[in-house]
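Annotated sample (chain length 68).
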Amino acid sequence: MGYASKRPGKKKRSLPTRTVGVLLSVDQLYNRFMTMVLENIHHDMLELQYHVMVLIDPMNSATAALAW
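Output written by the structure step:
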């Protein structure tokens, strides 16, 4: 493609994303305790000006185990 960096060898300084990731299985979304934990994480991180990213892992659920 012919792309060449203007400053080879110099690293770009990346800024922190201020994002916290939480990985849950699908089954945990129906668990009231886990939703309360998630709410508290969100509230605490909001005070610190962080974002919360929730990722759903369908492979670690009871229904996924039955599908295999």
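Annotation: The two ends are 42 Å apart (CA to CA).
Annotation: Helices lie at 32-47, 62-67.
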